[in-house]
Amino acid sequence: xxxxxxxxxxxxxxxxxxxxxxxxxxxxxxxxxxxxxxxxxxxxxxxxxxxxxxxxxxxxxxxxxxxxxxxxxxxxxxxxxxxxxxxxxxxxxxxxxxxxxxxxxxxxxxxxxxxxxxxxxxxxxxxxxxxxxxxxxxxxxxxxxxxxxxxxxxxxxxxxxxxxxxxxxxxxxxxxxxxxxxxxxxxxxxxxxxxxxxxxxxxxxxxxxxxxxxxxxxxxxxxxxxxxxxxxxxxxxxxxxxxxxxxxxxxxxxxxxxxxxxxxxxxxxxxxxxxxxxxxxxxxxxxxxxxxxxxxxxxxxxxxxxxxxxxxxxxxxxxxxxxxxxxxxxxxxxxxxxxxxxxxxxxxxxx
Length: 351
Prior knowledge:
Number of strands: 7
Largest sheet: 3 strands, antiparallel
Structural class: mainly alpha
Number of helices: 11
Oligomer: single chain
Mean pLDDT: 76
Strand content: under 5%
Order of helices and strands: HHHHEEEHHHEEHEEHHH
Helix content: 55-70%
Strand order of the largest sheet: 4-6-7
Radius of gyration: 55 Å
Distance between the termini: 178 Å
């Protein structure tokens, strides 16, 4: 006999299980339908919100760019130049014109630095050329006139050039011959008896005369002009009346040009150089011919001799053109005379 109780229980449990499964299926279907509806709602929302978000992003980006442009109105924009064989636009070339001007200014400024030493060098070279011309000047082709310049605007010499020119004049053979002639003249006049007579006395007189010339030239034309910045040369006038030229040449023993300013000033170098050389001569002259009075006397005597020599240097080219048919000035005097005539004619026309 079957057990009805157990079968009834089994049936109830089956019914409960079926009811439970039915409920579970209903819940799963509800969850699935909720998820699907939520997903559909999400995608619909995105689809609906997409255009406004895009417009908003564009507006925010444009606003940011406008703000950046407002903050940097003059910010330079990089320019890239691509080298091509095609001809460029004239407008582009016009816009690029300031760049070469800057380079030109830089090149000009860079070239302006080495021009100062070149200018000084050219001035030195010009002085060297003038000194070489002076070293060829000789009166009658014999007596040196190295310390005479025919250029009124001659370039001032450096200390080394002054010393070299003075030494060149001191060692010239004619300077030695002048010492010998001076010694013979003094022996004939019976001067400087402390040196004695005969060959020995003549040699002492010749040596003393040469030392006088050497000391006077080196001190008066080299050392003191270098210290005092004075030009030791004789600047020949070469034009004007005879009286004016005579007074000018005589005055050059007491006046000279300054190296830096080019203005006339007292010729301390010449006068002091003659006195100093006279003081040095006391070391090798006999005691009878030494002393303070003798020193200043010899200094003034040498200055007077220099004055006579300056007058001769002023008029020598005129004598050379007249008697030797040679122009030591190489046409400079003719140019100066032509300028004088032109100025004179202009004054007459004004009257």
